[in-house]
Design brief:
The protein is mainly beta. It has one helix spanning about 1-25, and strands spanning about 40, 50-55, 70-75, 85, 95, 100-105, 110, 120-125, 145, 150, 160-165, 170-180, 185-190, 205, 215-220, 225-235, 250-260, 270, 275, 285, 290, 300, 305-310, 315-320, 320, 325-330, 340-345, 350-355, 370, 380, 385-390, 395, 400-405, 445, 450-455. Strands 7, 9, 10, 12, 15 and 17 form a 6-stranded antiparallel β-sheet that branches. The protein has a 5-stranded antiparallel β-sheet with strand order 8-11-16-13-14, with no helix packed on it. It is elongated and about 105 Å long.
Length: about 450
């Protein structure tokens, strides 16, 4: 009984395999292809590097037959347009400058718009046999399109972003990534047309981790011919029994460039927030703050007076009424009379509105007051700036530096408790956790008895 059932299943599979292509291949009911149904493409290169331009149906399932133009000679396989140009395959087979709002890298292509998966890319996932008790279902695991970048699944499945490139000459792949979780394995490698992985260090890479918000760029060499490039990630799940699985941080890729293509048949639109004013551009420029642009723009547009935007924005945001969180207080440096003053400043750039009802207003500056003493081990210089005492001298911060008595030596150390000025050996900076960066490099400002964070991320 089991043998008969299996035989039936095998016969059915053979029937599906043989008959279905025959049914699909039946084009007797399709209309005849018209000239509008064809497009040009190039044949494969022969041993001498020559090829032909031929017309084929855009979609073979919508029409059949027809009278396409006869084949004609195409540019040799080593031919390439320059940066800022494209090859008009459907027209005169000559190089033309890219129109405004677009760009071309000549013998390369750049991907940085991840609202849709670009042509040539695919995504795969697989379940890795786990040495632990739990194993994830990876059927739904995949890379995620996030507009300005593409993100890995961020789980313990093996997910792959794959790109197939047929290079006419030796080239490279350049990609910019963020990889901040060392509980994820990140491997990038290329295979040839025989599915053989190249083992050299220039084409088989294990990218190093980055800090939060930090982007790194890697260049990998590619050979002429077919190259299949894999960006593979897999989380390491050390989950204990009964505990909730840890959420892993995904690997982010925001830009991929492929160099070594023989030609570019069309120019790439500038991404939202970028523009190309002139024709023949080989890159797009970034819009300034308080401007925006849509994809394929030749110019940036201004935000209205009630809106704002950060550099490289694809839209503007309405300014909200100001609150007390939109300004900060700081103490001025001590003047020649050893006086300081509490002042209030808007956080720059100012992205709120103080001209609407209910909005917070900037507070008035305070009265001048005596400066607090210097920190221990320091004293005033010219009554305004605190400086460290010279070697073998000491101070409590209130008095001038004094030489240590005989048979004694200063106890060197640093004790900061007054913040009317940034100490001479201390600096601050702002680190953004996003791709937009900080609006100012200054991270902390002195505020009397405390130091106050004063950096804001771009929005």
């Amino acid at each position: 009984m089991n043998v008969s059932w299996r035989r039936c299943v095998i016969v059915f599979i053979v029937y599906i395999t043989i008959i279905f292509p025959v049914i699909r291949a039946d084009t007797s009911q399709l209309p005849t292809c018209q000239m509008k149904d064809f497009h040009y493409t190039f044949t494969e290169c022969d041993s001498s590097g020559a090829r032909w331009r031929v017309q084929v149906p855009k979609d073979p399932d919508t029409c059949t037959g027809g009278a396409p133009h006869p084949p004609d000679r195409a540019p040799d396989c080593g031919f390439s347009c320059g940066a800022g140009e494209y090859l008009a395959v459907d027209q005169d087979q000559k190089c033309h400058k890219c129109p405004p709002g677009t760009y071309s890298m000549g013998g390369g292509i750049r991907y940085e718009d991840w609202t849709e998966l670009p042509e040539g890319f695919s995504m795969l996932s697989e379940t890795i046999d786990s040495w632990m008790d739990t194993q994830s279902n990876c059927n739904e695991s995949s890379w995620h399109l996030r507009g300005q970048y593409i993100a890995s699944a961020g789980d313990d499945c093996a997910t792959m972003l794959v790109y197939t490139a047929n290079l006419k000459k030796a080239g490279s792949v350049i990609f910019t990534y963020q990889y901040s979780d060392d509980n994820t394995i990140f491997h990038v490698y290329a295979q040839n047309d025989q599915c053989q992985t190249r083992k050299d260090s220039k084409t088989n890479r294990w990218p190093t981790t980055t800090a939060e918000g930090e982007w790194k760029t890697i260049t990998m060499s590619l050979t002429s011919g077919l190259n299949v490039i894999y960006w593979k990630t897999m989380g390491i799940d050390f989950e204990d029994a009964g505990q909730k699985k840890k959420k892993l941080k995904p690997v982010l890729i925001k830009r991929i460039e492929i160099m070594g293509l023989a030609y570019t048949s069309e120019c790439t639109k500038c991404s939202p927030g970028d523009y190309a004013r002139e024709e023949g551009a080989h890159f797009c420029s970034t819009c300034e703050a308080n401007k925006f642009s849509l994809a394929g723009s030749a110019e940036c547009s201004d935000c209205t007076d009630t809106q704002y935007s950060g550099p490289g924005s694809g839209n503007c945001t309405e300014r909200k009424p100001c609150t007390s969180k939109d300004y900060f207080s700081t103490n001025t440096a001590c003047d020649e009379n050893k006086k300081t003053q509490l002042t209030y400043k808007w956080i720059e750039p100012k992205i709120c509105r103080s001209d609407v009802q209910g909005a917070a207003q900037l507070r008035k500056d305070g009265e001048k007051q005596d400066c607090p003493p210097c920190n221990p081990g320091m004293s005033f210089f010219n009554n305004s700036v605190c400086q460290f005492c010279p070697e073998n001298q000491f101070s409590d911060g209130d008095k001038a530096c004094q030489t240590c008595p005989g048979s004694t030596a200063p106890v060197y150390g640093m004790d900061f408790k007054w913040w009317h000025a940034m100490p001479p050996n201390m600096d601050s900076s702002c680190l953004s956790m996003t791709d937009y960066g900080c609006v100012s490099e200054q991270g902390w400002t002195p505020n009397g008895e405390i130091g106050r964070a004063s950096c804001r991320e771009r929005v």
